[in-house]
Amino acid sequence: MTEKLFTPAQEGSLRSRLGKGAVWTAGGQIVRTGTQILSVVILSRLLAPDDFGIVAMCSPILAFVLFFQDLGFGQVTIQRETLTHHDVNFLFWINASVSLALAVILILIAPLMGTFYGEPGVASLTSAMSLQVLVYGISAQHNAIIVRRMEFSTLAMISAIGGIAGLVGAVMMALYSRSYWAIFAGTMATTVVVSAATWICSGWWPTRPRISDRARPLLNFGTGLTAFNLLNFFGRNLDGVLIGRYWGVTELGYYDRANKLLLLPLNQIMNPLARIMIPMLSRTVNDPEQYRSAYLKTLSLVLFFVLPGIAFVTATADLTIPMVLGGQWSESAEIFQALGFAGLLQATNNPTGWLFISQGRSGDMLKWGIVSSSTIILAFLIGLPYGASGVALAYAIGEYLRTLPLWFYLGRRGPVTAKNLIMSLGPFIVAAHAGLLAAWLVQGLAPGGLISTLLLSAGACGFTHVAFVLIFPSGRNVVRELGFMLKGKTLRTT
User: CA 282 → CA 76, 219, 350, 351, distances in Å?
Assistant: First the structure.
């Protein structure tokens, strides 16, 4: 078995590879995000809030299981400087074995889930989700191989095809049976199509199980990431469990739609971008200047475009959510607005994981996970007596309080310091808040009419955001980078 299958692409400079990767990833995510937004809109009109609530009740246990089945080994494959067939084969069989065990466990605990929530549909849906666990588990290493090789065009096409498959599967099932099974059909179709494509495109096939000579360091790195993911899981999913248990399926349905509507576009940008940045940063970690420049310039460009969008929809949620999802979802608007403030900071804070992983700092990542998850859970408990809106508001306040401590903790080691983060990324956060305020104020001044109000709010938000960005040197540098790119050149990383 040739080890060239695991050799990262070397053609072109880092600047060229990053630029091409961004273009391909953006294209793939436009399709993927478009299909998922269409799925949310169409299914929100075909299904009842209770159907989404049932799926939201099952989602935390599925996410919990998926964290355990990967064990961080996908990132191990991506991050390691050298890799052999025996290393990947060892990790594949661990993933496959754990996935099978977890699928069985999921089936066994399904009745308990139904009893816990008092919803019979939760039990049957949880059992069905064991199929997703199996399919995902046997393709995790194949996906990691493609990411490691930085074959971004392949990843983009797989992502787009998977998104289309999920949309078609969900809508067809919804037309046949207007129930929560339509949502499951969409996710299952995406999982099967993406997994099959990664097997074919990776070009790698497992052989008989065998322990790698480097099993211990591989397991140690993966264990640190898994422990962080486990803590992060509790911090990110306990909100749904608590709301569902104490406020019921309808309240959870409103919360879940608001959360998904905000996080869906954000995740569809940041998650694929992580597939570009982690392998690239891992290959340049020994060149601090190039490493720092690649991270800060890339993330600055992303924030320049993403944050004003989050600011606009947060300011106008009481208008946009009923328009997009229908009047029956009006109660999600207040929840969405609280989560939107958290989203302004999550767009900056979540990518810090790229730095921890690419620098091999899984231990530091775990320590921060303990602090972060503890404060998130505390916020949920404080906000729970006030319903889903209270949980969302408490979570947003916690995100503001954690941001600077995270930046200083991360920056104490490695090429990217807290000062770098504050000077390069801070201006975009300030500008986004100014844009949000402008969009909110314009609503009271705009003439009658929903569309005209939204257009004026969007214009005010965008203009104010750009104006504030241009005040700061790092903001002006990003605008110059955009001009450089519009002239047909790729992103400069040095």
Answer: 11, 18, 17, 14
Pick from 134, 167, 443: which is nearest to 312 by CA? 443
Position 12 pLDDT exceeds 70: no
CA-closest candidate to residue 59, choices 228, 188, 229, 240: 240
CA separation for the pair 275, 252 (Å, rounded): 31
Interatomic CA distance for residues 265 and 306, integer angstroms: 9
Residue 396, helix vs strand vs coil: helix
Name the maximum alpha-carbon separation found in the chain. Answer: 71
User: How confident is the model over 440-478, as pLDDT tens digits?
Assistant: 998 877 666 788 888 999 999 999 999 999 999 988 988
Sequence spans of domains, the chain: 1-213, 223-494
Residues 6 or more apart whose Cβ sits within 8 Å of residue 37: 264, 265
357 touches 79 (CB < 8 A):
yes
Contact between 145 and 83 under an 8 Å Cβ cutoff? The reply is no
Band of residue 16 on the pLDDT scale cut at 50, 70, 90: low
User: Residue 347's Cα: distance from chain center in Å?
Assistant: 10
Angle at CA 218, nearest 5°, toward 213 and 223?
145
**Contact criterion met (CB below 8 Å) for 95 and 66:** no
Backbone angles phi, psi at 83, to 5 degrees: -150, 140
Give the whole-angstrom CA distance, residue 275 versus residue 279.
Answer: 7
Q: Under 8 Å CB-to-CB from 109, ≥6 apart: which residues?
A: 61, 126
